[in-house]
Amino acid sequence: RRRNPGEPEFHQAVREVLDSLAPALHAHPEFAEPGLIERITEPERQVMFRVPWQDDSGTTLVHRGFRVEFSSTLGPYKGGLRFHPSVNLGIVKFLGFEQVFKNSLTGLGLGGAKGGSDFDPRGRSDREVMRFCQSFMTELHRHVGEHTDIPAGDIGVGTREIGFLFGQYRRITNRWESGVLTGKGREWGGSALRAQATGYGNVLFAAELLHTRGEDLDGRRVAVSGSGNVALYSIAKARDLGAHVVTASDSEGCVVDEKGVDVELLRQIKEIERGRISAYAQRRGSCAVYVPGGRVWDVPCDVALPSATQNELDADAAATLVRNGVTVVSEGANMPTTPDAVRVLHSAGVAFGPGKAANAGGVVTSAFEMQQNSRRESWSSLRVAERLALAMRTIHDTCRQTAERYGAPGNYVLGANIAGFTRLAAAMLAQGVV
Ligand code: NDP
């Protein structure tokens, strides 16, 4: 903490991993080599830069850009960009740290990174977002590349922003280097199902958790938080598998829709019109209620899928979920559940899927996009869907088996952390002190 003051989310993410590692260090004393943990918790490189741009009125604004290249032990740096006013160095470091373990867990040849800016795209015109993205990439292009560092989307960065970023990269470098960014539009190097992948993947993970109890999603009541990319496609996939999704939210409130969330209406409002969740309730009719400032965790459900942001599900919310009979909580967002809340869920016997595993479908499909780019191929939705389903099953089984092997059956947090750590640590030892 003395070394990294004012970065509580980073401390939280590191502590959660370190708390899991004792059985792995006991079984592999070589991983306890002095300096190894210190190297894992120190980013290889951190870049902070000025992002000046002009809004539609001609006013010059200055934001701060970040790219934290955490680890390239297992492959080129890989991880999303977040545009949100809350972004600071500590947030980007926590996300980058998580990404290293997530990418290791997937078995892919990818290192970990994260980046972004305190810019808020909400309420900005397309031209303003374009000018901001162009300024952001004018600096970022020095640090990224298909063999170096490959950003993707995250909060506030979707296909629109990736398009503007890619256009500026192409213009500056005079190269068609499609592998430099993932999450591109389908017509210019993007993969089928990349937009859907994180939400779809999390629902597949939740289904695996249910299968271990001899249950499935059919007929289950599901609570989803958020209404962005991950939430939207979690709702869509859960509905396809027969579940009844009754909630969605944004930072201002939540909706409860007892008839089941209408995905097409939500997509129209959020993705096309870029509107608020309150508009959903107004247009949906009497089955949907908007609760200003409300939290979805108060709504009784069997399965909860936190899909908005970090620390959105605290111990009090977890206790409410348990009281209402939740059996599975699976994280679509990164670190949405506080450590106290995880303890409440574990001690109540709730199956808990940590984000590192449960939301890895996004980066897995980014890797598919990179494979298609390097082969100049375009895979069908069916092919991507089959590979994504296989990947999520494999990640689930890896977490489950690792937790059992290290004496904590059913603890997917420990399973995900140890599986990610052991692969990373072995590669670090093999590569020497770098
Ligand atoms: P979006 O920007 O598409 O959506 C974010 C959603 O979360 C919005 O509904 C937003 O509401 C809400 N939200 C954001 N910040 C807050 C906050 N401080 N308090 C309450 N609600 C908030 O982002 P994504 O769906 O892409 O990302 C959601 C989560 O999933 C993040 O944790 C991200 O790191 C994680 N993730 C995303 C992946 C991806 O492929 N996109 C991959 C893996 C993880 P509002 O509009 O009011 O801000």
UniProtKB/TrEMBL annotation:
From the UniProt record, which GO molecular function terms apply? glutamate dehydrogenase (NADP+) activity
Q: Which domain of life is it from?
A: Bacteria
Q: Which CDD domains match?
A: NAD_bind_2_Glu_DH
Coiled coil, from the record: none
UniProt keywords (A-Z) are: Oxidoreductase
Segments forming domain Glutamate/phenylalanine/leucine/valine/L-tryptophan dehydrogenase C-terminal? 191-432
InterPro entries from the xrefs? Aminoacid_DH-like_N_sf, Glu/Leu/Phe/Val/Trp_DH, Glu/Leu/Phe/Val/Trp_DH_C, Glu/Leu/Phe/Val/Trp_DH_dimer, Glu/Leu/Phe/Val_DH_AS, Glu_DH, Glu_Leu_Phe_Val_DH, NAD(P)-bd_dom_sf
Protein family membership? Belongs to the Glu/Leu/Phe/Val dehydrogenases family.
Q: How does it assemble?
A: Homohexamer.
The molecule here is called Glutamate dehydrogenase
